[in-house]
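User: Here's a structure from my thesis project, written as structure tokens. My advisor, Dr. K., wants to see whether a designed sequence matches the one we expressed. Can you design one independently, without my sequence as a hint?
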């Protein structure tokens, strides 16, 4: 399993984009829930007691939530992309190998990076590819033998 540096940040944009959207939504939901908790514990008791709500106090307690959430967002997005590389990258390479095999060409050895998912799938794909290569070799040898081997038919006498 060789290690090769990735050349592209987005390997499969539709899949990774959907994953990033989900991660962003989870981040947003978490941030909103955290803000709601701050509201419930800091503003709601004052409001329900009939006292005047001091908006500056609420903002004071909300500021750490907003700052920590803003710091966390790019970290979450970066880690989501890095995680997605571990399963999207192998599927992109798998698709390339399938295209080669479908075109009747020999496929290179399917090797994954050390931390990629589906390493056992790579072994199975390599077995299928080797069997496919074997069948192509047998087929081409048989068709070559058919062309070069003369038939044992006797000439028919006319007359």
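Assistant: Designed independently from the structure alone:
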């Amino acid at each position: 399993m060789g290690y090769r540096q990735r050349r592209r940040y987005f390997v499969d944009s539709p899949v990774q984009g959907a994953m990033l959207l989900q991660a962003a939504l989870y981040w947003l939901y978490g941030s909103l829930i955290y803000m709601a908790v701050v509201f419930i514990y800091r503003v709601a008791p004052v409001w329900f007691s009939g006292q005047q709500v001091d908006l500056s106090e609420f903002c004071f307690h909300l500021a750490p939530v907003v700052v920590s959430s803003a710091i966390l967002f790019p970290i979450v997005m970066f880690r989501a992309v890095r995680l997605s590389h571990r399963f999207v990258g192998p599927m992109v390479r798998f698709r390339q190998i399938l295209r080669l095999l479908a075109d009747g060409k020999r496929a290179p050895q399917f090797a994954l990076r050390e931390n990629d998912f589906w390493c056992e799938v790579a072994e199975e794909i390599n077995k299928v590819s080797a069997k496919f290569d074997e069948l192509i070799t047998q087929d081409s040898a048989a068709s070559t033998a058919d062309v070069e081997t003369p038939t044992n038919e006797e000439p028919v006498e006319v007359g």
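When you compare it with your expressed construct, this may help: The radius of gyration is 32 Å.
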